[in-house]
Design goal:
Elements: E1 2-11, E2 21-23, E3 26-33, E4 36-45, E5 53-56, E6 64-67, H1 73-87, E7 92-95, E8 101-105, H2 109-114, E9 119-120, H3 137-150, H4 155-168, H5 172-187, H6 194-203, H7 205-215, H8 218-223, H9 226-237, H10 241-256, H11 275-297, H12 300-315
Antiparallel strand pairs: 1-4, 1-7, 1-8, 2-3, 3-4, 5-6, 8-9
Helix pairs in contact: 3-12, 4-5, 4-11, 5-11, 6-10
Amino acid sequence: MRFRYTFDVKGRIKPQQIVSFDVDGFLFEFYVEREFIRNIRVSFKIADHELPCVINNPEPGIALHINVTSPRIHEVEEIMRQIEGMLSFWGVEAIGIRKPKHEWIAENEEEKKKLKLYNFSVRLEELKDHEIRSVSFDLIARSIIASVKTKQHNVLLSFNKRGRVDNKNENYIEAIYNFYFVIESYYAGGKNKNHAVEKALKNSVEFNENINRVLADQEFKTHLPSELRMKYESQYLKKEVDVIIKELVMMRGFLHHYSTKRKSNWHPDKQHEFRLEAYFLEQLSHNVAFGIMMDQAYDTDVIKQYKELIKKGKNGNGTNNSF
């Protein structure tokens, strides 16, 4: 019996020719489309205990329970990360290491009878267009009016926006950098040394209130991936705010430096290890950025000008009657 991972390849690597080959029991195959490598497939021999198991599920409404394994996944992930770095010189931007397709391949009829599941894959899907909640036009218009009137870009909104995009793209370490810039800039009064930032954050009543607001948000906890909820309990909910602040600052310092000689290290391609921290910081940063947006969009003069534009539109005096 063989097992195969299929890893999607992002980028444009254009080989002159393709040959499948075996290295230390790993068979490497390539899928090419329009001259470019679209995925890399890695297969190897497995034992019967590594086969998927399908059993009847006693829970109502669920017919079957499927137990699957990911054979040698940590070993293969390390190999693929090295391949990703090596091939980056020739056009590879990223390899989908975290979400490979799993396949069990029978090599004869006897093995085929043992298989209850042939393959599975995991994909994240965005909401469909019709599922997106609509936004009141007055918020769009007042955001534009406020931006024109202030004639000044608040860079914290950009840091927050970039952090949200980073989280969406699973670039959690980069997200932490961006969200931390928002927090440090808004609450730390220009301090940038770790000990000074920590002291300023601990002394900030507003930041303490922000943390407590997030901790009290049951919806945030509910929407966390199930595998992170217990960690959230121990890492945040059961700790004092001062301890949370200290650990946030220490984490930022830890991620700001890298040395191959340091025993405890982070890995740029293991960003999922910092998912929870990135999600928590996103909530803190969002509260800051959303407050900035609301203060400007709900400014008295902005609302007044918006109402005047509506009035012009209704009277037919405006150049655009969409109001």
